[in-house]
Design goal:
26% of the residues lie in helices and 25% in strands. The chain is an alpha/beta fold. The protein has a 4-stranded parallel sheet with strand order 1-8-6-7.
Length: 206
Amino acid sequence: MGWANGIGVILEHHQKFFLSVNFPFCRASLGVRGNVRKVKVGTPDIERELQFQEADPQLGWKNKPEASGSFSSKRKGYSANIFFDENGLRSSSGKSEKEKPYTIVFLGASTTAGLEVSNDQLFTALLEKKFHRAGLSLKVINAGVRGYGVDQSYLQLKELFSKLHPNLVVYVGSIFSLNQLPVVKNWFRPLSKPAFSLEGNGLKAW
């Protein structure tokens, strides 16, 4: 069974419908066994994102609940005001008229998290606005976390499922996301994560 097919089986086990969106790019990753260690952060972007993240024993790191601040780079030409809710999600500030609306959750890494734009300019926020203008009462939630592999997103979904009860889960991934499965440490990140292999309909931590 291939990595992609195996992950599809895992996620379908927890959700009625699963959609995968892939982007045609990949990035090299390096890994070594070990726990959380102090290392020199590799890029300024990583340094800036740390204000919005915290260590997690299972996921390696996660978005910090209720964190907020500025994420900007003059060199790259972006500036955004970021805030996360009590679950560490970048949901829009808009409220649905329904008490329990149809809920869509987007999972993924930096492409999904979109820290380069403010919350109201996230693709998930714009999608939710389009639904509302069309008279549809839907809630679109952005659960992206920079640097996540498909393994971390799967474990994150297991945690979020009981809280959000989503009707639809959309995973935005790439080859890089699959490469993360056997990796415990990227040289440019200060936090480690477990390495995983597929076992049946689940993941086995090394």
